[in-house]
Amino acid sequence: MRAHDPAKRATDFLSCSYGFRPGRSAHDALHALRNGFMEQGLRWVVDVDISKYFDTIDHAHLRRFLDQRVTDGIVRRMIDKWLKAGVLEKGVLRRTTGGTPQGGVISPLLANIYLHYVLDEWFEQVARPRLKGRCQLARYADDAVIAFEDHLSGKRLLNVLDKRLGRYGLQLHPTKTRFVDFRFKRPGGRHPATAGTTFNFLGFTHVWGQSRKGKNVVRQITAKDRYARALASVTEWCRLNLHRPFRAQHAHLSRVIRGHCAYYGISGNGRRIRWYHHQITRIWKKWLARRGRHSNLPWSRFRATVMRPSP
Questions:
Q1: For the Reverse transcriptase domain, which residue ranges apply (predicted)?
Q2: Which terminal residue of the chain, N or C, has fewer Cβ atoms less than 10 Å from its own Cβ?
């Protein structure tokens, strides 16, 4: 890989890219996108979904992109070996001409490089200068959202985006890629709020709401599918580990809650976080009741027991 001093490493990727980069996180992407809606007047959204992205990366195009970045022969030969490794399906090795190696540590970086040239540079250098009004791209790996101030600019970009990706072997998902009207709509007004005024990005549903002071704000709340998946995972864990000591279960579930809150515990999502904690407690009590010891324990006493610090 090319030698860089720390001050220049940030130029390897553009500011709109947040995934798999040191010093950047999904929270940074969410914060930047929210600021775009709140401060720049962005109101139209292209919710980008690339079909089977990691499986359809074209190796020929990827190698041409790597030629612009990697000059070390040893590194290039190592990358080529990763790409030629193939895919193991049901004990059968299948050679592929596309995609990144499954489970390979290099896969996220290669995928990031691919979209840097295919999407990021094209948007910033070619598409943005031709569009009216302000616009913003926020991308984390293959999860991307493009927000616009002007309605027609958003439509124009969506019309050419599929052609741009198609040149490099990628395809937009026909139903998951959407053009969203994200303008604030007052409930009961001439344009009542509908499900179409929301979109998901990085596990959060983005929706307009009002702050306690009555100000219109963009709220980022836990997406329903992520919420349901998290509760289903806890239910399954409780079922399989019902035999473990009470305190051992408490310690594990406490770590699960802390991990969930570390990601989803952002401003405006407090209600979903509190409800998640409540549901975890309810699920655990339900499964503990099957052991008999906690079947008749009042809810207040059970919660007091749960709230004790875990070892």
A1: 1-206
A2: C
